[in-house]
Amino acid sequence: MRLLVSKFIVFVSLALIACEGYSAGKLMIVGGALRSDNEAVYREYIDAIPSRWADVAIVPAASGRPAHYARQFEQDLRNFGFEGEILILPVAVKDDGSTGDVDESTWSRGAYDPQVVAKLKTVGGIWFVGGDQTRITDTLVQEDGSDSPLLAAIRNRLAKGGIVGGTSAGAAIMSSPMIAAGDSLSALTEPRAENYAGMQSQESGQLMVKGGLGFLDAGLVDQHFDRKSRLGRLIRALEPPLARDMRRGYGIDEDTAVLADLDTGEMKVLGRGTLVLVDAREADFAEDSPRFAVKNLSLSILSEGDRYNWQTGKMNLDGAATVGKEAFGYTAEQGAGLTQPNGRLDHLLGFSLLDNSDTAELRRYAFAENGPGVLFRFEQTGDSQGFWRYGSGTKDQYSIQNVRLSIEPVTVSIKQ
To answer: pTM of whole model > 0.85?
Structure first.
């Protein structure tokens, strides 16, 4: 009976929101290292704030310097002409001793303070700063998994058409499950971690997946994607028993954002980097293998201005088609290491594969000096498409659709 009553209350609440003319809100998911001069991201965020709730609330819970980085984001918004009130919510677990005018040691229970929660009544934009994503979930989610009063209020703002944004850790919490830690090689060659070892395990350590806030229910988000080479850990996080419908990964580069419309399902890429979309819904994960392996992943890369709709599966990629009109024709080198060209994933699959008439497969190896390694096998298929255009000035910019990717375990022997 209690479950039926709860469902009825949710149904009525949603119906009332619809009757008031509201639509689901938007997410601004930033891959970290957001530059203060990234006009495209700041402008889109400001423009998405509903005029009827013109204020912004900053949640600095992830940061080791909560007030400092909240104020930095506040200044960035002002520099781009934002005129509403900006509220720095006292929600954090770390006290920054350098901010003498603020005692952040009193902020640990801010998410349960009725006066803090009440401030969201005029807020149409929420922003999560970067740091450690587990601090956000530890602060906003109760021990039984239910929402704190502040998190419930944030969900209400989002459901009524507000925008929730975040960078780095503030991007990781957008999905649930949430990637909490791990590097790619460890993720692909070692078991998952059961205990969180702290922020250092985000740079080097086994994959750990925890519960996020679940604002985006169409897959998993990862950030700092290209610079920290996180393709491997994102793929490992998509394996069963994760539900099939959730087996899509969104890897967002630094200084790059995805604006996601929760009403239409449309994602738009903003900024200097790319969105890497890994679709594992039809992939074959090795169930009985002692080491991780997977075949038939679908890999796409979206550049600035490109769009993807997770509800329909449709992509709108800009640029001139490369397949059948390749600019290059050479046999690409297979292997690993600093001597290999096109280290960025979009460059590798653009220059070396889909804009290269003489290469249909690329193999790249990842391994440590001691221990097992993996082979990444990228294949052009009949469904693969490449698009080229100039980005800023004469900078080549590639968008890629439906490259087949498999990951196979290998053993590498190094002799000196």
So the answer is: yes
